[in-house]
Amino acid sequence: MRFMATYDFMETMRNTNQWLGASALALGSYPAMSMVPNPAIQWLAAWGQVTERSFARMGAKPDWGIQSVVGEDGRDHIVDIEVEVSKAFGDLIHFKVQGRKEMPRKVLLVAPMSGHYATLLRSTVVSLLPDCELYITDWHNARDIPVSEGKFDVEDYTLYLVDFMKHLGPQIHVIAVCQPAPLTLAATAYLAEEDPKAQPRSLTLIGGPIDPDATPTEVTDFGNRITMGQLEQSMIQRVGYKYKGVGRKVYPGLLQLSSFIAMNSESHTKAFKDQINRVAKGEASDHDKHNKFYDEYLAVMDMTAEFYLSTVERVFKGLEIANNEFVVAGKRIDIGKITDVAVKTVEGENDDISAPGQCVAALDLCTGLPDSKKAWHLEPGAGHYGIFAGKSWRNNIRPLVLDFIDANSGPRVVAGKDTARPSAAAKAKTKAAG
């Protein structure tokens, strides 16, 4: 009961601030207020508009907002977002482009489950959609999942990825962004032993904590400083009465957001002050740079308690992936069993979340993979966000990833049979793509 009251208190505070913002906007917008020009009234309305919008976004899932894509024929093609596989804790969705023949590049984009919705990768999706048949993992907000659906931890997450890969078939190329990188690597290794023919053609890991201790950051240091008991007591709450998941233990999105903002409180405070001033001066717009960023940044989702705690305990503290000791459903996963899936890692030089060295560690774990099928890239001057959605991604990393996919789309060896052996030219292109 205590944890449910805390969860409901946070939601009450969010609703109250949203109401205060809406009230201030309404009060400051009355025509009668304009009879006596007063900058304070304009500022009040501006504060209300920014406040109401900000707190409203915290409780809503953003829309993908992808209406169409330009095809090779130069025409706009409508994009339908279809649920390919539906599961309790997450769906596999397909960005189906109407009137366009199926693209030869078939890509599964694995979105993080780290506090934000899959729409955080909207710009990544937009950049890949013209050149790929694109699928993405769309994780659900834990507050909306009834307790009757059971638990969901790192092992369940890994098995979800296994099912999604099996469904899409062996022609798929997988790109994992940030948090899911180690579990995607584990899912691929799981398939290497259990169902080799279902393995993807290639695996691109972008800014993920394969070995968090390779280059410690504030994020990994926090995980080492606090005990699991302290973490559970301070971070875990039960969903309140407002949502379908009432009673489920979660790491609340609002609590995560407070941590995100606290890490860069000065820059966030300045951003909101500047936006209020722009609104007061009539210089802001509905889809300006501030709103475009914060509409997504403030939209947070709850994670199941078992997923959050098992991630910290097993990936960050126990280093089960880094030490090749990860266990799924009672079976130890041997990453060295990956022998014919090309693996590429991408890191940002200035990444303060998954610092350089953490992700490239995956290549050392792939002891059964020849060097010709390994590639890596360190993007100079890029931060965490930039390596999958910023200018660095668009201008430098995306072309390298597509080249890597193309270089590994041909024949390869599965279970000793030559079903798709890469040519010498393809191998050379793979090394060049790194």
Automatic annotation (TrEMBL):
Q: Where is this region: Disordered?
A: 415-434
Q: Do you know which InterPro entries this protein is assigned to?
A: AB_hydrolase_fold (IPR029058), PHA/PHB_synthase (IPR051321), PHB_depo_C (IPR009656), PHB_depoly_PhaZ (IPR010915)
Domain PHB de-polymerase C-terminal, which positions?
207-408
An example Pfam family from this entry, by short name, is PHB_depo_C
The residue ranges flagged as biased composition, category Low complexity, are 424-434
Please give the superkingdom of this protein's source: Bacteria
**The name this protein goes by in its record:** Polyhydroxyalkanoate depolymerase
User: Which species is the source of this protein?
Assistant: Celeribacter baekdonensis
Q: Give the taxonomic lineage as stored in the record.
A: Bacteria, Pseudomonadati, Pseudomonadota, Alphaproteobacteria, Rhodobacterales
